[in-house]
Design a protein that fits this description.
Layout lengths: L1 H7 L9 E4 L13 E4 L8 H5 L5 E3 L6 E3 L9 H5 L6 E2 L6 E2 L16 H5 L16
Antiparallel strand pairs: 1-2, 3-4, 5-6
Length: 135
């Protein structure tokens, strides 16, 4: 997604988020598709955090967002190996683990929504606390 790539300076060839499209269903010409967001699920008991030998992978206690301290990451890829969603990657420029962090250091830090939410053409993506409909 270009908005994520631009806001978070993610180079071509890797992605923090993908929108997957299902196979068509229904009768032609009235076929339909389903779309799925594939990115970090910000696990409560994140295996990537548990396996990180340097503490670079962490859960922000205030927000619950799973993130990576670039300065602490040594690029061992343990977190990539244990991620059940296979959404982590090695950033080709920084050579450290990278993943969706809901634009924690960019948009969220500036009081905005994650780039994918702002750019979603159908407004299907939302961001907030699922237990708080006013968030």
């Amino acid at each position: 997604m270009d908005s994520c790539r631009d806001v978070n300076q993610v180079p071509e060839g890797v992605s923090r988020l993908e929108i997957l499209r299902s196979e068509p269903y229904g009768e032609f010409p009235n076929q339909e598709y389903e779309f799925f967001r594939q990115s970090c699920q910000h696990c409560t008991n994140a295996p990537c955090v548990a396996v990180c030998p340097t503490g670079a992978s962490f859960i922000d206690k205030e927000t619950g967002i799973v993130d990576v301290h670039k300065d602490l990451c040594v690029g061992c890829q343990y977190c990539i190996a244990v991620c059940p969603y296979r959404v982590r990657f090695i950033h080709p420029v920084h050579r450290t683990a990278d993943k969706c962090n809901f634009c924690r250091d960019t948009n969220l830090a500036n009081g905005k929504q994650p780039a994918c939410v702002e750019a979603c053409p159908t407004k299907a993506l939302t961001f907030g606390d699922m237990n708080d409909p006013t968030s």
